[in-house]
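User: Structure please.
Assistant: Input sequence and predicted structure:
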Amino acid sequence: MPERRLLARPIRAIGALIASAGATATFTALPALKQDPVQSITDPPKPEAVHVRLGAPGGDAPSPTPAEVLGPLAPNARAEWRLGWWQPLDGASTPAWCDNPGVRVAAVQVGPTLVALARNTLTGPATVWVQAPCAAGPASSEVLTVPADPAAPALSGPTFTYAYTVPRDLGRGVLLRPGELAVFRFTNWSRQATVCAADVASAWRPAAPHAASQARKGAASVRAACSRMGAIGRGGLAAARLLEQSHGALLHLAFLESVTRNAAGSDPTASGPAQALGAAILRAQRCMGACSAAALGLATQVETNPREQGNLSVSVSVTNRGRRTVQNVRLWVSGPEGAGLTPSVESSFGSLATGQAARASYTVEPNAPPEAGAVQGHITYYMARTPAHLRFPAVW
């Protein structure tokens, strides 16, 4: 080739100069450069946009049942364990309309929560956007993504977004690969506040005789907390008023919780009524925390990844999407009794302004396979001089 002839001439000239000086030169022919074939780059398939509307009839064909949407997950004990405790599906069937038959959808109403399951049976990815009717007031939308392989350990989420809504649809979208399943949860916390107020009042009656000297103050706290929860349940509150009422209820519930612990510690016969009241208080605290987070516009997520030797890596994050600065934000993770936690202290972030996010990661080392709900992510913060506590179960 011409290129080789041009290259050989200077090499021979250099060799002649070296030889004339009495030196010896050895030249080795270089192999020809090999050119790799040109590889074509194929763009990944673009996700297909799919829209789902809950509460809307799906035409003449009836909506599938949750068991039909679960499909291959149904006979898998691991998958049933994951989904069964995170969100029971034993509710009343609700119509669900989908604009693509390749995504199977089912919906059920479980108390104040509207639950939807969506499975991607298409050959490519799909962005599934679910819209649910929502009344005015505090609400939350959550989504949990389950992999196509029921035995796979990794799950995405759950992610929670709280919002103070006007009467409109509450939407949530997620990217699903072929075979993946998403569980959507839309909760009306105003409706839940009414339920919690009734539960606390009902549980207080058998526990009141054991409260001794604190019975009168306990009764006053029950009335005050139930009054505030009732006001939230009736709806029509502005976000600022919702924040005031929810944190006022949290303050009275905290006092009632201390009364319950003292009664159980001093009177052995009070253990049964105290446990029932404690459970009702915990549900009410979770509800009021959700109402507070809705008024503030917080978005949270708990991510769990199994590690070697049964350990779990758990990350907790919160983003302030509202207009108020949240004070004294703390994140941490709790595990089953006897489990090791690294780090062992809470992560404190001070204040969280609009648009800011906080994240903390922990390693949980259980001494035995943890039961459902035994590992939780926690977020606490102060608003209106009262703490709020958000709890989120870790799923793996």
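Residues 47-296 form a domain with the Immunoglobulin-like fold (CATH 2.60.40.1180).
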